[in-house]
Amino acid sequence: MKYSVQKISKDVMKLYNQKLLLRILKDEGPISRSDLSKMTDLTLPAISEITKELESLNLIHNIGESRINRGRFPTMYQLKVDAFKVIGVTIRSNSIRVGLMNMTGEILYDKEQAQLNTQPEIIADAVSSLVDTILQEANTKKSEIRGIGLGMHGIVDAVNGISVYPPHLNWDNVPIRTLLEARIQLPVLVDNDCNTLALAEYWFGGGRNLNSFITLNVDYGIGAGIVVDGNLFHGRDFGAGQIGHVAISDNGPLCTCGKYGCLEALSSENAIIETIQKKVKQGYPSSIKEIEGNPEKITIHHILHAAAAGDELTLNTLNHAAHYLGIGISMLVNLFNPDKVIITGAVIGFKEYVLGTLKETFNRNALKTNVTHFELAASQLGDKADVLGAGSLWINELFKGNSSLTDLLHENKPVSL
């Protein structure tokens, strides 16, 4: 049997080195060519050639000489952060959020609107309108935008830009990338929202410098973004990370996927709200009735206030959800043995009430050999992590992906992933 040897072309090596320097400049800030050479083991002539190329692409710039005590003053380089602007979009079950950001993940402008009509064409029109609004209000030309990144819940074909199955929208194989590109006239990258959140953590949050980690998004649904060897793990049919639809309880409630006892049906934001609404209607004593008298109108914000006030029904419901979350996280850790699990989503607002029970249940169920060097933490990225993650689809391409820098910077040119 013969084995083929993969040869790395000169162009591939050149691209790798270009993006390596961009990553160093992102992480280290202003730096000299001499220091770049020491950090990469590339020769000074090679570093000089790459910095000239990056300057010609308008991605970095020379900021002058640095004053040192002795010897020649070195010329310093840094990223030209506004040379690569992208827009992140998240389509949720009842709202759309759009954010404009630069290559360092700084969100320059963002906007959110309610969206009750979930027909694909209506959603695409609304996204296009929001993009136009945000560009106008941010005084930014469309020609300055390198692309649109979209994060969606459910199963997403990231290669072909298809929303395969988002249960909260009731879509079926919707070509959302095509719909958006036709309206906005900018290239679009699409992925599952848990994967985009993992990218946000990888580039800007708790996943930096980690080889393998998992982002668990506990919001109106539950899902995981899995990073293995520094890359997203999508699975054979883009279904990896659907921990929300793993059955945790045989006698649990009905889930949106049609099964009973799924983690999402027990521990998601929607599950918590529905449990409290149901028990208030059944007459369980709770101070939440003083915050919102109509059980049908109880929201996650009312629940947060009730928890802060020490309401027993609310705290018991949160502990119940946290118990099953701990089991779910232990499953992920037992399967993947990651460096870290980062919890994101609405549950972050309740961390002081749920983390104790969650960690207790997790420690009881996780293999001890898998937690020796393991860390469980809440995300520090804040409530704009979703649009940051969506935009990070392009930021990942800039700093690490296979797309050439020329293609990425060429307006409206399709990008091959």
Walkthrough of the structure:
- The chain has 14 helices and 15 strands.
- The chain is α/β, with parallel strands linked by helices and 417 residues long.
- It folds into 3 domains: 10-79, Arc Repressor Mutant, subunit A (Orthogonal Bundle); 83-200 and 385-409, ATPase, nucleotide binding domain (Nucleotidyltransferase, domain 5); 208-378, ATPase, nucleotide binding domain (Nucleotidyltransferase, domain 5, 2-Layer Sandwich), CATH 3.30.420.40.
- The strands form 4 sheets. It has a 5-stranded mixed β-sheet with strand order 6-5-4-7-10. A 5-stranded mixed β-sheet has the order 13-12-11-14-15, with helices on both faces. Strands 1-3-2 form a 3-stranded antiparallel β-sheet.
- The two termini are 31 Å apart.
- The mean pLDDT is 91.
Helix/strand layout:
Blueprint: H1 10-28, E1 31-32, H2 33-40, H3 44-56, E2 60-65, E3 75-79, E4 85-91, E5 95-101, E6 107-114, H4 120-137, E7 145-152, E8 155-157, E9 162-165, H5 176-184, E10 188-192, H6 193-204, E11 213-218, E12 222-228, E13 231-232, H7 263-267, H8 269-281, H9 288-291, H10 300-308, H11 312-336, E14 340-344, H12 351-365, E15 375-378, H13 385-399, H14 405-409
Helix pairs in contact: 1-3, 2-3, 4-5, 6-13, 8-11, 11-12
User: What are the secondary-structure elements, in order, as H or E?
Assistant: HEHHEEEEEHEEEHEHEEEHHHHHEHEHH
The helix content is 40-55%
Q: For the largest beta sheet, what order do the strands appear in spatially?
A: 6-5-4-7-10
Question: How much of the sequence is in beta strands?
Answer: 15-25%
Q: What's the alpha carbon Rg, rounded to whole Å?
A: 23 Å
For this structure, what is the CATH homologous superfamily of the largest domain?
A: ATPase, nucleotide binding domain
The CATH topology of the largest domain is: Nucleotidyltransferase, domain 5
User: In the CATH hierarchy, what is the architecture of the largest domain at level 2?
Assistant: 2-Layer Sandwich
